Amino acid sequence: MKPSRLPIRWRLTLWYLLSFTAILLLFAGFLYWQVQRSLLAQIDSGLQLAATQALVNVDGDNGRLAFQNLENSPQLGSRLSDDIGIYLLSPQGAVWQKLGHDEEMPQLFPVAGLQTINDKDDRWRVYGEAIDLPEQPGGWLMMVQSLEPVTTTLLALSLQLLWGLPLALLLAGTGGYFLAGRTLRPIDDITRTAQVIHASDLKQRLHHVGPADEVGRLADTFDAMLDRLEAAFIRERRFTGDAAHELRTPLTALKGRIGVTLSQPRQPQQYVDTLQEMEGQVDRLIRLSSDLLFMARLDQGQMAQQWERIDVQDFLGAMVDQIQPLAAAKAIVISQTIPTALTLQGDMDLLIRLFLNLLDNAVKYTPENGRITIHANQDTTDLRITITDTGPGIATEHLPYLFERFYRVETARSRNGTEAGGAGLGLAIAHEIARAHGAQLQVDSQLDQGTTFIIIFPLPKGANLSL
What we know:
single chain; alpha+beta; Helix Hairpins; Heat Shock Protein 90; 8 helices
């Protein structure tokens, strides 16, 4: 089946016209039937009333029925003037007497009740009633009225409907076309906006101000999607630029160092020193490349996660053991307050990277003879693990951006040639790992008062994760 080439606006209009036509035809048929029924009911009622009045003036003298004293029945006279014919028939159907219109009538048959007689030129409504007289032969009273007024009225109604229906359809089609256009206008706006959008400019928006119906929600959803796309493109551009800068810096240093070394002959030890320095730069490049690849896999959901139940006390103890040599080099004391009955569900490898990043960050920014405190507690809804250091702290204005990629605070967290310098990916990686576990990574810090990182793991509903 080939798809329709008609625009949606025309298709909506056609469907509307088809539906409206069906409704109008049903209404016209019902109206015609109701008018016909009402007119026939009026005629039938008039015939029956005239028959009742006529029976009062029927006499059976001389062995046959006849009308008497009609001049004393003005109501019956008015009925006769309304094209009603009155017939007295013998029991065999012979006409004894006739009053009323002089039009030629088809043969009447003595039948009780209402009937319609069709003639080649006209149609008649007939009401018959038997007349029984004591000790005399009876007969039939037949009331007859032409249906020509009914036919004329119905013909006029049909002509009005035939003229009115096309006009109504024309007005309905025109109105439906404009209504469909008005309804689809936000979709046209979406189309035009989408046509002018490109990767370098995602600022176009619909700014829908109409009702919050299906089309309105579509426009709002489109704007929200553009907001997300713009934010994603901004992050990607910044990430790409920062990554290029971070890679260019050590590569430039390597090239410069190689150029200086090759500019003149050197002693063997000088070559060794140069190679050792270059090895450090290469190690930094390897770590940076590894972090970038890890972030890309997290973004694309390509990290194969193997979830398992982890004892919190044993796990954090192992993390402290791994970081302890770095802390000991600065005489930093690491203390732990961790209950024995806590567990969490997660990927062991990812959680190791999360907590090693946080602990390594704490060791880097804690001065010599400082302290790092690890605390864990659980309530009915979540498990909280905090890591607090006694470092220089972070200014409040930097906290909202701390987990962004390549973001570095311009004081202690800027790379200034000291050991503390980094590419600004560690906290971003920790944040993404926490998010992959449905957890929240928060930070609380003030200048000269240290920094606390809080990891909040939600507990599964109805689950008891304690051992």
